[in-house]
Amino acid sequence: MEFSRQETREVYRRYANPGLAGMLALLDFDKAFVRAEGVAVWDREGKRYLDFLGGYGALNLGHNPPEVLAAIKRVMGRPNLLQASLNPLAAALAHNLARVTPGDLERVFFCNSGTEAVEGALKLARAATGREKIIYCRNSFHGKSFGSLSVTGREKYQRPFAPLLPGCEAVPYDDLEALEAKLAGGDVAAFIVEPIQGEGGVIVPHDGYLKGARDLCDRYSSLLILDEIQTGFGRTGYLFACEHEGVVPDIMCLAKSLGGGVMPIGAYIARPAVWDKAYGGMDKALLHTSTFGGNTLAAAAGLAALQSILDQDLAGQAAARGRFFLERLRQLKEKYGLIKEVRGRGLLIGLEFNQPVGGWFDKLTRGKVNELAGEYFGSLVAGELMNKHQVITAYTLNNPNVIRLEPPLIVTEGDIEQVLAALEAILHGYGFIGVTLSSAKTALGSLLKRK
Question: Taking the complete model, does pTM exceed 0.90, yes or no?
Answer without folding.
Answer: yes
